[in-house]
Amino acid sequence: MPISRCNCIGFRLMFGLALLIVTWLALTPQPPQLPAVSFADKWAHMLAFATLALLADTGWPERGYGPLKWGTLLAYGIGIELLQSQIPNRFFDPADALANAAGLILYGLVVLRVLRATGIR
Question: Which of 60, 67, 77, 87 allows an S-S link to 100, with CB 3.0 to 4.6 Å?
């Protein structure tokens, strides 16, 4: 089922909002406390980037989920990690960048296939 133009615009707006929220969470000196779950921070990174991938892919469906989309999101994730090294109480964590990449891969290899198999995308 193709995504309508109206829905594309909605997904683009949600993508912009998600980018603002992820950027704020990544760059605030005092981020919200995460639940006391093993690797909660890494799970949050992976979920955030899988969500960004979903919104980018559904917002611009005519372009497919190729290097332009996932590459730009990967560069954004590395960029925010580099910016964190300049913020008090924050630091660059290569494991966070890997969790970001894992979220992009999760979307591309699992979620996108499920959406296509069910006819949603």
Answer: 77
What is the residue type of 77? G
In a domain, 46, yes or no: yes
Domain that residue 15 falls in: 5-28+39-117
CA–CA separation, 121 vs 109, rounded Å?
A: 14
How many residues are listed for the chain in this entry? 121
Q: Is residue 33 part of a domain?
A: no
Does the residue 65 lie in any domain?
yes
Look at the chain and report how many structural domains it folds into.
1
110, two tokens: 């699992």
- Contact between 103 and 44 under an 8 Å Cβ cutoff? The reply is no
pLDDT digit string (tens) for 1-37?
Answer: 667 878 899 999 999 999 999 999 999 998 888 888 8
| Number of other residues whose CB lies within 10 A of the CB of residue 79 | 13
> Cβ distance 87 to 25 under 8 Å?
no
Of 67, 62, 57, 60, nearest in space to 115 by CA: 57
* pTM exceeds 0.85: yes
